[in-house]
Design goal:
298 residues, 24% strand, 7-stranded mixed β-sheet, alpha/beta, single chain, globular, 9 helices, 35% helix, Metallo-beta-lactamase, Chain A, binds zinc ion
Length: 298
Amino acid sequence: MHLVHLSMSDRYMWYNDTPFPMHLTKVGDSVYADTSGSNGGNMGAILLEGAIVWVDSGMFHQRTRAMVDRLVEETGLISESMILTHWHSDHIFGAQALDVPEIVSSEETKRACRRALDSSWRREEILSYAEEIRKERPEYWEAAQDLEVLIPTQTFESSYRLDDAILVRRCGGHTAGSSVVIYESENTIFTGDLVFSHEFPYAGDTSCDIDRWIDVLQEIVDDAYDLIIPGHGPICNSEELLKHKAFFGSLRASVKDAISEGVSYDEYLERGKIPDFYEDTRGHRTGMAVRRAFELYG
Ligand SMILES: [Zn+2]
């Protein structure tokens, strides 16, 4: 197998006169990951004999393209397929840059993509949103101009094997279709957004299942992986997963208590009842997690 090392300077490229950090970093013998947050969600690559399998694709296809071109050029490998952990745009909108014949996801994730294509992902919706936020997020506006949303071509119900060494398993939790990607040769797992390493998680999806999320975090810890690549934030260990599990457990208990005491969603937030966790730097994620807990347990 042909392995490559990207030097620090290689991780910085220029696009459209705007510098941005290229963080596709070698994290295992044949595993790469971008956990910089500069391209929406984390994405990764597994180098197999003769081919690259991508895990998620980031959000801005121009940025994804720069990373993909570099890895393809350095390794001489072709991009074989992409595995999608779930349907959220910060993991799938970069897909057109990957040029892969096959996009794999759970059937549930494909269904969610189809629903989004009929609503918030309609071309006119995306362009008008891009126009609204053009000043604050020029990279979103730019990517939206020639965005082609690609959806999965190959789906599975509960699990899928790829090239013998890779197992994709649907877990649910963050979204109903959320799946983990396990690269068995290196005892490595890509968790997708089941883990927001060192940040407050997004738990606002209409199919988010907090009970399931808690259980699957424990399952991943029990499986004792050597390398855990989260959906957002830096590479982490089991402790980080247990922290998330404890937070969701406390949230569930406190929302159940609040509901039994007749406390409303607004009162819950006003009284600052949400358990301590990472700061919600985006400002809206705490409210969404609490809202979802009220929906689930109310
Ligand atoms: Zn997500």
